[in-house]
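Lecture notes, part 5. Sequence design as translation. It can be helpful to think of inverse folding as translation between two languages: the language of shapes and the language of residues. The source text, in structure tokens, appears below.
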């Protein structure tokens, strides 16, 4: 049996081979095959990478032989020879995962340089300074990536030399300066590794390939994969490509471009370039680049050719492309293309526009936008009427706004964010090693770098505000300060960023709600045409209900009535109810709450005119409405010491006694939910009365109401039956007294394993089920959410005991099986049983997919996640269409 190939020439691959060749390798092959100017090269497969790790980091048998054979083909294509004295071939060695991970893994440029090839390249280019500059870059990059010598060691020597000779930019260093620098670099390598810098080009290439494979598991790559839910077992391909040089002289350059604006989606080529530079200079932000539009006047023929390439690539891939290019002595080369990272705003506009241009279908447009990214558009922005003090201006690299404390390193950003503080990460430039700090920060501010720098690209992908290239900003890391002109700020001071304008603002700013663009509305309208799941919201007051309706909610899936009791004017009444010694005293307190509750329900039901409203009866244990036992005991002790044993003391003493009486060892599993309603039926009777009196008023006023009364924490049919009878009696009485008729529905929240297993029996007395997946997850896994997430959840995820946090994404293997049992058994009893989900899982795309697959009728989530749910529900219907075209309303099929 012929063994699988480990090495493919660019001419042998194609776009469909992404899993094997990685995204970069597949695209290089595709670009080559459609006739674009791509420097020749080869790709070592992801399969070879996986083999490398399975065999103690040894290259697969036969790979080297295949590599040298294929490299010989590259030599023929270029007319150059690897390691030769005359016209030597130099190589770049880059990673390329099946799923794009920009900047997360390692790259080596100018590979193949040594004393022999330096002389050959000098003769070929007649530019010794350029060749030496390539060599010093190669030593620095190779030593860092392959030999483990810290980048900073070289950077300090470079900065010191530039200061000594009085130059600011690297390209101002002379040939003599570079020769000195190279010797110092080699000394650093020997001192740090105990070996000379390798001079054999073949040895350099093998070492580089192993290092790129090794970078698959570097910390920043692992963090990025965890953040973006990329599997850890894919491996990376290695792309070995002929070097072309943007740093030969003023007729050469390098740049990064997008076929459309990745921040706004505007259909206009967008990018930056640097003359006499290599690609790393643009990405790393070492020099602030020029906008690509200037290339049109600087090199018009090259710009025209580039524009034609962009048009061809976008039509071929039918998506916004992110392109790296190099100009060598006036000749254009494309080094890479991939689907460009973009903001949510841009993703929506590009998708809608491309449908309008006939490039993609409506369903493809819907699939082009990541539902989770929509949260970027639903966050607040700076109030335009606010008076702000702009202290500096940079490049508007990622839109949005943020306020926070200045931090000058990624580790500190992560540390403070973990304590709940909002921070702005301020740095000269960011590197892939800063990924954890970028994740933790509210926004990012850099003094160098452009719109395609590392900070800009990563921030846009995360939807974080970012301002780059703020050159007036002077950072003193030793003193822990930043300076703008005469203003000095220290770490911990508050600043704000406006990523839309590039403004840096002193202090905290007022933020306002965002507005949804016409393209956003269009996309969501398309989603509504496709999806089968209804989308409801979790809301407890008319303000949240109005916001949810603006975002397209089709009802309320969870109204938590306990939230209504916590208001300062209500809490004393609730406490009086709890402290009551008799039923009569309790009913007296409840009578005070009744009109307040009625107004709550009146306002919410009116706002949701024509849509269903699920109202959950009181759920938490009563002691949660009383003061903390320890704090109250300390307060009483202080009053005793001061001799203040008065009426107030006696009242507080009574509260303490009641709090101790109601205290529970495990409140989550204690006297709450329907157990409370059965022990104190007068509480649920008051709530039912308030709901139905509000309904009677609204019916008289001409509103169409659909109340769904939800009994929480049911484990048995008899609990629901007991409470249902009381609720029905109250409804009959109120309808009779008010001479009105209205429909209402009584159901339960399924949040305990026993309820799932007995769903058939519970369905006999329930009109609907709503999964409370937070408690169902806690009781199924035996995890207290607060304890798990605070103590061991990160460890479980890091060690891959669990693939995802089950409180964020439904645990399909455990919780999911119980949900399926409940759906199947409940519908076995009642084929039209309405079933939904009301936990925050209802706004998470992976969980929405699962709800669709098991046949739920709706998902419910917080108001700001409603658009996310609408789009996610459409995408799952496109990918996994339901056999029935019917869509349920509040109760049963329509």
């Amino acid at each position: 049996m012929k063994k699988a190939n480990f090495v493919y020439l660019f001419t042998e691959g194609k776009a469909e081979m992404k899993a094997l060749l990685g995204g970069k390798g597949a695209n290089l092959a595709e670009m080559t095959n459609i006739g674009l100017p791509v420097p020749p090269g080869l790709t070592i497969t992801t399969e070879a990478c996986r083999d490398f790790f399975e065999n103690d980091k040894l290259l697969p048998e036969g790979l080297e032989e295949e590599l040298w054979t294929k490299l010989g083909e590259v030599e023929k294509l270029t007319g150059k020879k690897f390691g030769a004295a005359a016209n030597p071939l130099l190589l770049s060695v880059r990673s390329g995962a099946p799923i794009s991970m920009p900047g997360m893994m390692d790259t080596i440029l100018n590979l193949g340089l040594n004393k022999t090839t330096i002389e050959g390249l000098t003769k070929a280019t007649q530019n010794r300074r350029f060749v030496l500059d390539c060599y010093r870059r190669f030593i620095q990059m190779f030593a860092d990536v392959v030999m483990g010598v810290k980048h900073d060691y070289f950077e300090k020597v470079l900065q010191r030399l530039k200061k000594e000779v009085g130059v600011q930019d690297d390209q101002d260093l002379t040939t003599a300066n570079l020769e000195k620098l190279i010797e110092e670099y080699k000394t650093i390598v020997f001192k740090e590794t105990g070996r000379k810098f390798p001079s054999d080009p073949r040895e350099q290439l093998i070492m580089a390939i192993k290092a790129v494979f090794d970078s698959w598991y570097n910390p920043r790559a692992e963090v990025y994969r965890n953040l973006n839910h990329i599997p850890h077992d894919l491996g990376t391909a290695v792309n070995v490509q002929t070097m072309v040089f943007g740093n030969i002289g003023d007729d050469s350059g390098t740049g990064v471009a997008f076929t459309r604006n990745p921040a706004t989606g505007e259909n206009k080529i967008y990018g930056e370039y640097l003359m006499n530079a290599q690609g790393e200079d643009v990405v790393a932000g070492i020099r602030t680049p020029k906008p690509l539009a200037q290339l049109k006047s600087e090199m018009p023929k090259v710009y025209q050719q580039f524009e034609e390439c962009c048009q061809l690539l976008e039509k071929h891939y039918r998506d916004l492309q992110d392109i790296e290019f190099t100009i060598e002595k006036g000749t254009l080369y494309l080094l890479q293309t991939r689907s460009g990272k973009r903001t949510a705003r841009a993703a929506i506009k590009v998708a809608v526009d491309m449908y309008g241009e006939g490039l993609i279908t409506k369903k493809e447009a819907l699939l082009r936008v990541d539902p989770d990214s929509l949260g970027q558009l639903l966050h607040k922005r700076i109030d335009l009427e606010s008076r702000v003090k702009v202290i500096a201006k940079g490049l508007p690299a990622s839109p949005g706004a943020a306020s926070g404390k200045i931090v000058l390193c990624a580790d500190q950003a992560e540390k403070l964010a973990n304590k709940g503080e909002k921070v702005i990460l301020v740095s000269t430039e960011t590197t892939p090693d800063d990924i954890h700090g970028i994740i933790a920060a509210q926004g990012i501010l850099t003094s160098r770098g452009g719109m395609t720098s590392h900070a800009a690209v990563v921030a846009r992908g995360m939807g974080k505000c970012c301002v780059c290239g703020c050159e007036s900003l002077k950072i003193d890391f030793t003193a822990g300060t930043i300076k703008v002109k005469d203003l000095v700020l220290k770490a911990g001071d508050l600043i704000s960023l406006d990523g839309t304008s590039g403004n840096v603002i002193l202090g905290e700013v007022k933020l306002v709600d965002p507005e949804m663009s016409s393209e956003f509305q269009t996309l969501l309208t398309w989603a509504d045409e496709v999806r089968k799941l209804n989308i409801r919201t979790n809301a407890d007051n008319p303000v949240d209900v109005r916001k949810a309706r603006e975002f397209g909610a089709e009802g309320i899936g969870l109204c938590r009535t306990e939230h209504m009791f916590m208001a300062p004017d209500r809490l004393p009444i609730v406490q009086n109810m709890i402290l009551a010694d008799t039923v009569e005293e309790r009913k007296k307190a409840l009578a005070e709450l009744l009109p307040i509750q009625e107004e709550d329900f009146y306002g919410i039901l009116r706002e949701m005119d024509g849509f269903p409203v699920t109202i959950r009866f009181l759920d938490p244990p009563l002691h949660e409405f009383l003061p903390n036992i320890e704090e109250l005991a300390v307060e009483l002790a202080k009053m005793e010491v001061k001799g203040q044993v008065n009426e107030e003391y006696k009242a507080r003493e009574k509260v303490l006694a009641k709090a101790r009486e109601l205290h529970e060892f495990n409140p989550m599993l204690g006297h709450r939910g329907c157990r409370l309603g059965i022990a104190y039926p007068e509480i649920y009777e008051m709530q039912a009365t308030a709901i139905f009196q509000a309904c009677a008023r609204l019916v008289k006023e001409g509103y169409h109401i659909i109340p769904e009364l939800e009994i929480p924490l049911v484990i048995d049919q008899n609990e629901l039956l007991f409470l249902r009878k009381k609720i029905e009696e109250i409804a009959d009485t109120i309808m009779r007294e008010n001479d009105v008729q209205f429909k209402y529905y009584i159901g339960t929240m399924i949040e305990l394993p026993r309820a799932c297993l007995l769903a058939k029996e519970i369905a006999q007395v329930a009109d609907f089920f709503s999964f409370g997946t937070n408690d169902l997850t806690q009781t199924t896994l035996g995890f207290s959410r607060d304890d798990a997430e605070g103590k061991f959840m990160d460890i479980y995820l890091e060690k891959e005991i669990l693939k995802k946090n089950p409180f964020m994404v439904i645990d399909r293997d455990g919780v999911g099986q119980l949900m399926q049992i409940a759906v199947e058994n409940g519908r076995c009893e009642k084929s039209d049983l309405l079933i939904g989900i009301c936990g925050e899982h209802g706004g998470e795309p992976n969980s929405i997919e699962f709800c669709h697959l098991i046949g739920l009728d709706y998902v419910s989530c917080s108001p700001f996640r409603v658009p996310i749910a609408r789009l996610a529900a459409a995408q799952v219907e496109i990918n996994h269409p339901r056999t029935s075209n019917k869509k349920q309303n509040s109760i049963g099929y329509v």
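The translated text above is only one of many valid answers, since several sequences can fold into similar shapes. Residues 888-894 have pLDDT under 50 and may be disordered.
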